[in-house]
Design a protein that fits this description.
The structure is a single chain. The chain is of the alpha/beta class. The chain is built from 6 helices and 18 strands. It has one domain: Rossmann fold (3-Layer(aba) Sandwich), CATH 3.40.50. It has a 6-stranded mixed β-sheet, with helices on both faces. The chain has a 3-stranded antiparallel β-sheet with strand order 1-2-3. The longest helix has 15 residues. The chain is globular.
């Protein structure tokens, strides 16, 4: 299927961000970041996020984004989304009650979490500005691999999540590995210790891109969240109709235990 899609350059299907039939452009072998909807510019990964919300709120990955946001609006659930420029962000913002949504970017360690930079909220996921047990839903999309101390960020995400709340995310994955792969570490003085050839991912805010510190393993990630009082379930997605093709279609849903009120 992936080879055929690349050869043809297009696929017809259904965009779950728009809940409408769509035509997907397939122009690059990195299918996770490609397979672009003609309706809203969403990539494979953006539609994966919509599936993760369906899994978190309905236990069904095929529920569309408009339906999940309808539930969020009707139940007055608070949502924290750590992006402000992507097609996924634009789709969510167009649907959600604005009083329920908090969005942010990371502008650098010279700022404090909660600062406003040109009207955009800055948050460092290692030490956010929010009270404990604050959000019903948190979403990050290929963010955690760029956080110097991802374990610190995982702890803070669970801290600010309400008991019973859901954290939905994507991240580069070594699905069958026993341990995370650490590519770089930040020293106490702020300099970087590179353990392998540096890898940078595209970043809308930084021309040089964002450094990758860690690639995750399901086993270690699941165990860390268990120790934090949450369950982490990883899902492999595949759907030609939704434009979800290729080997990298994994999403993760963390549920904070109802009794956990850290």
């Amino acid at each position: 299927m992936s080879t055929q899609a690349l050869a043809s350059g297009t696929m017809s299907g259904f965009c779950n961000l728009a809940a409408q039939p769509a035509l997907f452009a397939v122009t690059d072998s990195n299918l996770r970041e490609n397979v672009i909807s003609n309706l809203n510019g969403s990539s494979n990964r953006h539609r994966m996020l919509a599936c993760s919300l369906g899994l978190a709120l309905f236990e069904d990955p095929l529920v569309t984004l408009p339906d999940t946001i309808d539930l969020i609006n009707s139940k007055k659930k608070s949502l924290f989304l750590t992006e402000t420029t992507t097609p996924f962000h634009h789709a969510v913002k167009a649907l959600i009650d604005s009083s329920l949504l908090v969005t942010s970017e990371y502008f650098g360690d010279q700022y404090a979490s909660g600062d406003s930079i040109d009207g955009v909220r800055h948050e460092d996921l290692q030490k956010t500005s929010f009270p404990s047990n604050y959000f019903d839903v948190i979403i990050t999309s290929d963010v955690m691999e760029h956080v110097p101390d991802a374990l610190m960020a995982e702890r803070d995400i669970v801290r600010i999540l309400k008991p019973g709340g859901a954290y939905c995310f994507t991240a580069p994955l070594l699905a069958m590995a026993d341990e995370d792969l650490i590519l770089a570490r930040m020293r106490a003085d702020g300099t970087i210790d590179y353990l392998d050839t540096p890898i940078y991912h595209g970043d809308p805010l930084r021309a040089e891109g964002a450094l990758v510190y860690r690639i995750f393993s399901i086993r270690q990630m699941t165990e860390r969240f268990r120790q934090l009082g949450a369950t982490c379930t990883s899902y492999r997605l595949w759907s030609k109709g939704y434009g979800l093709i290729g080997p990298g279609c994994f999403v993760h849903v963390v549920r904070k235990n109802a009794a956990n009120s850290i």
